[in-house]
Automatic annotation (TrEMBL):
Gene Ontology cellular-component terms listed: early endosome; endoplasmic reticulum membrane; plasma membrane; recycling endosome
Xref: SUPFAM superfamilies: Calcium ATPase, transduction domain A, Calcium ATPase, transmembrane domain M, HAD-like, Metal cation-transporting ATPase, ATP-binding domain N
Entry membrane topology: Multi-pass membrane protein
Keywords associated with the record: ATP-binding, Cell membrane, Endoplasmic reticulum, Endosome, Lipid transport, Magnesium, Membrane, Metal-binding, Nucleotide-binding, Phosphoprotein, Translocase, Transmembrane, Transmembrane helix, Transport
Residues the record lists as binding ATP: D415, K416, T417, E513, F555, K578, R609, T689, G690, D691, R801, K807, N831, D832
InterPro entries in UniProt: ATPase_P-typ_cyto_dom_N, ATPase_P-typ_P_site, ATPase_P-typ_TM_dom_sf, ATPase_P-typ_transduc_dom_A_sf, ATPase_P-type_domA, HAD-like_sf, HAD_sf, P-type_ATPase_IV
Broad class of the protein's primary localization: membrane
Record's protein name: Phospholipid-transporting ATPase
Localization terms from the record: Cell membrane; Early endosome; Endoplasmic reticulum membrane; Membrane
Protein species of origin: Sparus aurata (Gilthead sea bream)
Length: 1171
């Protein structure tokens, strides 16, 4: 038999009913070698090659795939249907009138997307074709990266990037370690240490590596960068030997080898299965509130279009009921038309009217909006005020689809560490058995000037305490993951040189650890290095102490502690543990707990980050038990993390408390000013942090999130232990609602002094109880609602002890509440990514905790202070601009098509077009598109400095106020009014048959051209009247568009074009302009069209001005220097109760410059257009 029964049994147990779910694992054969017979069945699995594909299209599928994506957009699909109808049936307008604008929009979008995809292809090819070195048959072979296969052994040299995900087999360093930077993955520039498999770390030649006979069993690819579970099986002469593999053995694609000459490693995940590729897959699409409003308006206009077509179709058949009107001599029907069924005729006519009026749907609006968003996003990137010289970074825009959403934010969720604070740790003090030690300031490895001596407070320990003190210092020198560099150059800066002497430089992925090790250095204990699994420290007597590092129980956010097991040179075994007070105190059995706890609480109230340190002496037997526990958990392929957590839990117990440390994380520059500005702008700021309550609360007071008069409401585990969650919630609810009388805080200004300011503090455990209440409690169903009601009435909320997932749950909870507010999340670390992706707008800070947040966000900024300008200035401008763009597009299309509708009543509903084909086609593409695009890019209705100085102006545009239904209806009615004035004005002026000076009569094309001329000038002047910020570009584009229209009309009608079958516009425009009455009617009709809007604005500004309008008026008065004057508050619109006093006091006598400005503009327009 080819296979013995034991092998068959192993296979069946693995793939069918085994205790581990083997479907979720893969077997990799190192060097593509089969395992020895009888040990393992050789089943070669199929894995993808190492080709990376970030592109969306191929050469063959670009056109069909891109067309499919574009025609999923309602407006494009609608115009395609209209175009097809024009091709199929006899319609009044040429198919070109619909086809050309559609073709233009589709082509521009396809070119943009095709170019972006071509760049992606180019980038992919450069990566896929780069050379890699592979060990084959004892020799190094060079091949392209894309040809790499799972199981290949790869040679990587210093400063080269890893071509795929690899398991480290050996390195040029004796201890089998290598140093790696993962900046391209998570932005952390620090050197991380990775470890080779113990059994292969001595193999340093190609022949030795080729002699390895082993397989790797590991989990299937998954995107978590920091998680990996596997084991390696070596086939020696005897039984196979299994060794555990973890994330410390896994080198990720995209990371770079540093300070190590070369390494040998085996490929386990390739191509699109690497962790980097899995992490870069597209995020869910976010849609802005403006886009939703646009789609709603589109539906309304579609209904208007259908109703127009139905009315005209019905009226046509009513009008043709009279036989004399049915077939006039100049329009007799053919025999086929007479015999056609009336329903078919009516449907054909309905479609013809749909085609005639279809321009009311603005197809070019989508392309204009896309261009506006794309080009507008560069203003954020070009903003020099948002450039950080220290980091050398500018603000980044990862998606331009949400620009206007920055002007609509109601809730801001912010991380604390690294976002509000600098994540720049400064060692303040340590407390050992109640004795406090305070060295001079040490900040992230840099000793501050003048710190030559050591300052200690309350240091009078006895002999026992002295031993405890040294044990505490040793614990902090040993319990960490800090690396030591000698005179290392990092990012071009030479570190480690201090006062002319060469010293060591500490680097770590955690700034806290560097601060603690540096603190110990100032207190006499210096950590030197980790060499050959031995940690060396220099004590106060300048003696080197060596400790063998046996185990590291790594830190994780659930346990909130880390431990090491070491053996001293005398043979004693110790477990040293450091972590958060909540993670250490419950595990302590002795030590001066009360004194240390009091000091920890004191430091937390001061806003310092505290850690507790404890130890446990181990006997040899206890250590053997620990080893068995850990090895059993490490070798597990399934649920390894869970089993390790259980093992750690059993090991880290019966601890003796040594002391605590305090580290300060300073508040970022202008963080308090930014939060205060956001409050004034009407936004609610929530701080979501993993820190303890006291530390976080102190930071909140320092950053002005809480004020001294803020009444703090606590919803914490401590309180819910004393009384039930149900009672606590109802107590808090009664407290806030009694004060606010049932009103939510949104109904009045958060700045009013006559109401109590509430701040809520909630912790992670209580939040879980609120979100997942117990089923036994019958009243538990409405906990969420009560919690939300309390939050609505609080000016600020602090959520502490939050897990990353809970941060996202909080954001989701607020997003889904009945008001559906717009949320913004801002953070700097990997633990903030979930809430950044969940919020409507996600902002990443380019901080010290890596770049995951910046990479996954919609926008990235260097510092928290830049959020103020991004929201109050850029967000404000973006929203103002795009709301005008959307309303204006619908307005100008109503003006355009409504005269066409009215014209049908005067042409026997014969579907005769009012405008020429060229005008129909170019109206939205050329004549009226550039002015509104430019307006939507550079308009500034208020000076930038004023917006920064007076955050309350942000409230004027809150809750999508400029795209509400009343304003939309006003713009639509204004368009209908203008259309009626244009059409009937021209109609009554045409009543005089001898209209021209030589007695010539005007025809229908001249009538249509007259209406179209008034239309183009009216809608362009309307935009000019709405423009507050004039530059030479505005003048050039607005007046240039009008000149282009005139020049085009003269050329179109002044030349006999050979490609036209008929030239109905020949000499029409010139003939119209040769008539004096035509000039007069153009000027009168433009003035009559614009007058109501001007009058309405003048009256509204005089009687009911908004805060924005008051400041515009005052800024005109001060000739643009208003921002230099401080009392902007006096210009704010008074409360509704004070409206009856509007005319009193100084306001009555103050000039209204805006009113004068409107009048001047009108006078200018009239005088400019008078012949």
């Amino acid at each position: 038999m080819g296979m013995d029964f034991s092998t068959l049994r192993t296979l069946i147990s693995r793939y069918c009913v085994g205790e581990e779910n083997w479907v979720d694992s893969r077997t990799v054969y190192i060097g593509q070698k089969e395992p020895p017979p009888g040990t393992e069945a050789f089943i070669q699995q199929r894995f993808p090659d190492n080709r990376i594909t970030s592109s969306k299209y191929t050469f063959w599928n670009f056109i069909p795939k891109n067309m499919f994506e574009q025609f999923r957009r309602v407006a494009n699909f609608y115009f395609l249907i209209i175009f097809l109808v024009q091709l199929i049936i006899d319609t009044p307008t040429s198919p070109i009138t619909s086809g050309l604008p559609l073709f233009f929009v589709i082509t521009v979008t396809a070119i943009k997307q095709g170019y972006e995809d071509w760049l992606r292809h180019k980038a992919d090819n450069s990566v896929n074709q780069c050379p890699v070195h592979v060990v084959q048959h004892g020799k190094v072979v060079r091949k392209q990266s894309r040809k790499l296969r799972v199981g290949d052994v790869v040679l990587v040299k210093e400063d080269e990037s890893f071509p795929c995900d690899l398991i480290l087999l050996s390195s040029s360093r004796d201890d089998g370690t290598c140093f790696v930077t993962t900046a391209s993955l998570d932005g952390e520039s620090s050197h991380k240490t990775y470890y080779a498999v113990q059994d292969t770390k001595a193999y340093n030649t190609e022949q030795e590596i080729d002699s390895i006979h082993a397989t790797i069993e590991c989990e299937q690819p998954q995107p978590d960068l920091y998680k990996f579970v596997g084991r390696i099986n070596f086939y020696m002469d005897s039984e196979p030997v299994a060794r555990p593999l973890g994330s410390e053995n896994l080198l990720l694609r995209g990371a770079t080898l540093k300070n190590t000459e070369f390494i040998y490693a085996v490929a386990i995940y390739t191509g699109m299965e690497t962790k980097m590729a899995l992490n870069y897959q597209s995020k869910s699409q976010k849609r802005s509130a403006v886009e939703k409003s646009m789609n709603a308006y589109l539906v309304v206009y579609l209904c208007i279009l259908i109703s127009k077509a139905i009315v005209n179709t019905v009226m046509k058949y009513v009008w043709q009921a009279d036989p004399n009107r049915d077939e006039p001599w100049y329009n007799e029907r053919t025999e086929t038309e007479r015999q056609r069924h009336i329903v078919i005729r009516a449907f054909t006519d309905f479609l013809a009217f749909m085609v005639l009026f279809n321009y009311i749907i603005p197809v070019s609006m989508y392309v204009t909006v896309e261009m506006q968003k794309f080009l507008g996003s560069y203003f954020i990137m070009w903003d020099d005020e948002m450039f950080d010289e220290e980091l050398g970074e500018r603000a980044m825009v990862n998606t331009s689809d949400l620009n206007e959403e920055l002007g609509q934010v109601e809730y801001v969720f912010t991380d604390k560490t690294g976002t509000l604070t600098e994540n720049n740790m400064e060692f303040i003090e340590c407390c050992v058995d109640g004795h406090v030690y305070v060295p001079h300031v040490i900040c992230n490895g840099q000793v501050m000037p003048g710190a030559a001596s050591m300052d200690m407070i309350d240091t009078s320990p006895g002999p026992d305490a002295r031993e405890h003190e040294e044990l505490f210092f040793r614990a902090l020198c040993l319990c960490h993951t800090v690396q030591v560099k000698e005179e290392e150059t990092v990012d071009g800066i030479k570190h480690g040189i201090h006062q002319g002497k060469s010293t060591s430089f500490y680097i770590s992925s955690s700034p806290d650890e560097v601060a603690l090790v540096e603190g110990m250095k100032r207190l006499g204990f210096t950590y030197l290095r980790l060499k050959d699994s031995h940690m060396e420290i220099l004590n106060r007597e300048d003696e080197i102490e060596r400790f063998e590092l046996l185990e590291v129980l790594t830190f994780d956010s659930v346990r909130r502690r880390m431990s090491v097991i070491v053996r001293s040179s005398s043979g004693r075994l110790y477990l040293f543990c450091k972590g958060a007070d909540s993670a250490i105190f419950p595990r302590v059995i002795s030590g001066k707990v009360d004194q240390i706890k009091a000091r920890v609480e004191h430091n937390a109230v001061e806003g310092l980050r505290t850690l507790c340190v404890a130890y446990r002496p181990l006997s040899q037997e206890q250590y053997q038990e620990v080893c068995q526990l850990l090895n059993g958990a490490k070798l597990a392929l399934q649920d390894r993390d869970k089993r390790l957590a259980e093992a750690y839990d059993l090991i880290e117990k019966d601890l003796i408390l040594l002391g605590a440390t305090a580290v300060e994380d300073r508040l970022q520059e202008k963080a308090a000013d930014t939060i205060e500005s956001l409050h004034k702008a009407g936004m609610k700021v929530w701080v979501l942090t993993g820190d303890k309550m006291e530390t976080a609360a102190a930071t909140c007071y320092a950053s002005k999130l809480f004020h001294r008069n803020t009444q703090i409401l606590e919803l914490t585990t401590k309180r819910t232990e004393e009384q039930s969650l149900h009672d606590v919630l109802f107590d808090l609810s009664r407290t806030v609602l009694r004060q606010h009388g049932g009103m939510t805080r949104d109904t009045f200004s958060g700045l009013s002094g006559d109401c109590t300011d509430y701040g809520l503090i909630i912790d992670g455990a209580t939040l879980s109880a609120v979100l997942r209440p117990s089923h036994e409690d019958s009243n538990s169903g409405n906990y969420k609602e009560i919690f939300l009601e309390i939050c609505r009435n609080c000016s600020a909320v602090l959520c502490c002890r939050m897990a990353p997932l809970q941060k996202a749950q909080i954001v989701k909870l607020i997003k889904a509440s009945k008001e559906h507010p717009i949320t913004l999340a801002i953070g700097d670390g990997a633990n903030d990514v979930s809430m950044i992706l969940e919020a409507h707008v996600g902002i990443g800070i380019m901080g010290k905790e890596g770049r995951q947040a910046a990479r996954n966000s919609d926008y990235a900024i260097p510092k928290f202070k830049h959020l103020k300008k991004m929201l109050l200035v850029h967000g404000h401008y973006y929203y103002i601009r795009i709301s005008e763009l959307v309303q204006y597009f619908f307005y100008k299309n109503v003006c355009f098509i409504f005269p066409q509708f009215l014209y049908q009543f005067f042409c026997g509903f014969s579907q005769q077009p009012l405008y020429d084909t060229a005008y129909l086609t170019l109206y939205n593409i050329s004549f009226t598109s550039l002015p509104i695009l430019l307006y939507s890019l550079i308009e500034q209705h208020i000076n930038m400095d004023i917006l920064k100085k007076d955050p309350s102006l942000y409230r004027d545009i809150a809750k999508n106020s400029l795209l509400r239904w009343p304003i939309f209806i006003y713009w639509t009615l204004l368009g209908v009014y203008d259309a009626i004035v244009m059409f009937f004005g021209a109609y009554f002026l045409f009543d005089n048959t001898t209209f021209t000076s030589n007695g010539q009569m005007f025809g229908n094309w001249t009538f249509g051209t007259l209406v179209f001329t008034v239309l183009v000038f009216t809608v362009t002047f309307k935009l000019a009247l709405d423009t507050h910020y004039w530059t030479w570009i505005n003048h050039f584009v607005i007046w240039g568009s009008l000149i282009f229209f005139v020049v085009f009309s003269l050329l179109w009608g002044g030349i006999i074009w050979p490609f036209l079958n008929y030239q109905r516009m020949y000499y029409v425009f010139m003939q119209m302009l040769s008539s004096g009455p035509a000039w007069l009617s153009i000027i009168l009709l433009i003035a009559a069209s614009l007058l109501p809007d001007v009058v309405k604005k003048v009256i509204w500004r005089a009687l009911w001005p908004t805060t924005t309008e008051r400041i515009q008026n005052a800024d005109k008065l001060y000739k643009g220097h208003l921002s230099e004057f401080t009392p902007l508050a006096s210009l704010h619109a008074p409360s509704k109760a004070g409206h009856h006093r509007r005319g009193s006091g100084t306001q009555r006598n103050a000039p209204n410059p805006r009113r004068t400005n409107w009048c001047c503009l009108c006078a200018n327009l009239l005088s400019r257009n008078t012949p």
